[in-house]
Amino acid sequence: MEGFLSRLDPNIIMDQSIQLAKHAEFKTAPDPMVGSILVTSDGTVLSQGYYLQAGKPHAEVITLKHLFAIPENAILFIPLEPCSFQKTGQSCTDLMIKKKIKYVCIGCRKIN
Ligand SMILES: [Zn+2]
Q1: 2-108: what fold?
Q2: 89-111 pLDDT, tens digit each
Q3: How far, in Å, from the CA of 30 to the mean position of ligand 1?
């Protein structure tokens, strides 16, 4: 993993995911703004997305839903820990497992 991340700067990718999230400023309340970016080990962006507005699919879903062949070494960057429970359907964690995402870099953990 050490050599794996040495080819890209995780701080830059995480900052880009935060900038993406800002596209939905004032639209996500009471939820936080969240962006996500899926990159290869050399930093090539494979997909990205952000939480559009409250009640809409989460950033991770937007980023991953249309991808069917995800490289084994892809890393998903998300400023906030992904949800692991959804009353109305699949959680983002479930989707990541289904899509076989092995590496996830989060900015912070959720309190709840
Ligand atoms: Zn989620």
Answers
A1: Cytidine Deaminase; domain 2 (3.40.140)
A2: 789 999 999 999 999 999 998 87
A3: 14
